[in-house]
Design goal:
This protein is an all-alpha fold. The chain is built from 16 helices and no strands.
Length: about 450
């Protein structure tokens, strides 16, 4: 609209100019319009905002959410792990991660990228191909995803992994697990070629983090005293504050993945909020029915389940679909948590797999259902059946690669420096044992 108004308002003035001036003006307008189409200020502003929101999800959102859930003797260790991962993943993303995920791999392009290391070829005026934003902004936005995904895995080994092992594991995992799967889905790889629908990270982020979490919990073993000893959250106020930050930051996570400030971003934000609210209420009701009282921990965990489950579908569905996805997320992830922790007695300390892994799988599959035109979605080229097969392929590939490579990385790190703190250090608490500090001096 703004271009048509400019043209109409300038017709009278242009008609009075000499022919040579008109020619010069036309060349100027053509040059200016080409530049304007390359970079859209509104899209760039929205992506800058979204980048800050997604980083806000990790620091301080996830750090506070996880920090409140552990025992008081380990609160600083969790905050330290999240902070250090944010720093280390940022450097690794600049050095090698972005190139592996979004670079051109030549003959291997369907599987991995092999350029853009150290941000080579990315200048001040570089534009990300297929978008209207600077590549530096796209780089930063995707970096925040590469930060929060390994940070989510912290919840699986909380209260028992060496700090040095955290750094080694997270670094290798980013390079060998996150970056390849990111390339398969978003970087021009084979899953993207198959038309896998993953708008903001059902496979790349949530299934990836969830599977890594369950493998890590199995390899490391349970915390001392689990499940006989009660290990209740030490500060629910901190957890609720962190959860609220996650909810707000998730708007940048999902709506920012539209890579533009338009219709798609608006719908993604809307369905994200609906699913979060529905997930909170359905989880709360499950607890209320089963235990007679609703818990604060339950309602905030249900929110995370609703957010994680809607993530892959957020750019493809309508609010009615988001309502169903959110309600199912709260119920299914609640019972998954009970099953893995109480029946199987797997000490995934902060329920990363039941919430993010199960939620990511559920959301990725339901995307194939609710994206169909018959369900009010955008419509699918081959119909719902074919898309469900593609979604299932994406889930299977992510689970298989992540499980295998995570297991190998854990064995490698264990052989090099060991994974777990000593029994005495675990009893003392990681805050004092590893950092010589206390979370609270009361």
């Amino acid at each position: 609209m703004r271009y048509s108004r400019l043209q109409k308002g300038g017709l009278f003035m242009i008609s009075r100019l000499p022919s040579s001036s008109i020619t010069a003006l036309i060349l100027l307008l053509v040059s200016g319009s080409t530049q304007a189409q390359s970079i859209d200020p509104a899209d760039t502003s929205w992506l800058l905002t979204s980048t800050a929101l997604v980083l806000f999800m990790t620091l301080p959102g996830l750090a506070m959410f996880y920090g409140g859930l552990v025992r008081s003797k380990n609160v600083l260790s969790v905050l330290m792990q999240c902070f250090a991962i944010a720093c280390l993943m940022s450097i690794l993303w600049m050095v090698v991660g972005y190139g592996l995920a979004f670079g051109n791999g030549g003959t291997l392009h369907r599987f991995i990228g092999l350029d853009r290391f150290f941000m080579s070829g990315i200048g001040l005026k570089s534009v990300r191909e297929g978008t209207t934003i600077p590549e530096t902004v796209f780089f930063m936005f995707q970096m925040t995803f590469a930060i929060i995904t390994p940070a989510l895995v912290v919840g699986a080994f909380a209260e028992r992994m060496k700090f040095s092992a955290v750094l080694w594991f997270s670094s290798l995992w980013l390079i060998l697990v996150y970056a390849p799967i990111c390339h398969w889905v978003w970087g021009g790889g084979w899953l993207g070629d198959m038309k896998l629908l993953d708008f903001a990270g059902g496979t790349v982020v949530h299934i990836n983090a969830g599977v890594a979490a369950i493998i890590t919990a199995l390899v490391m073993g349970n915390r001392k005293g689990f499940p006989e000893t009660a290990m209740a959250p030490h500060n629910m106020t901190l957890t609720v504050a962190g959860a609220a930050m996650l909810w707000v930051g998730w708007f940048g996570f999902n709506a920012g993945s539209a890579l533009s400030a338009g219709y798609s971003a608006g719908m993604a934000m809307t369905v994200t909020h609906i699913s979060a609210a529905a997930g909170s209420l359905s989880w709360m009701m499950c607890e209320w029915v089963k235990h007679g009282k609703p818990s604060v921990l339950g309602i905030v965990t249900g929110m995370v389940a609703g957010l994680g489950t809607i993530t892959p579908a957020s750019g493809y569905i309508q609010p009615s679909g988001a309502l169903v996805i959110g309600l199912l997320a709260g119920i299914i992830c609640y019972y998954a948590t009970q099953y893995f922790k109480r029946k199987l007695r797997i000490d995934d300390s902060l329920d990363v797999f039941p919430v993010h892994g199960v939620g990511g799988i559920l959301g990725t599959l339901l995307t194939g259902v609710f994206a169909a035109a018959s369900m009010g979605g955008l419509g699918l080229e081959g119909g719902m059946g074919r898309q469900l097969l593609v979604q299932l392929t994406g889930v299977g590939a992510t689970v298989t690669w992540c499980a295998l490579m995570t297991f190998i990385i854990l064995k490698l790190v264990r052989s090099m420096i060991g994974l777990r703190v000593s029994g005495e250090e675990e009893t003392q608490g990681l805050d004092l044992a590893l950092h010589d500090e206390r979370g609270y001096n009361l």
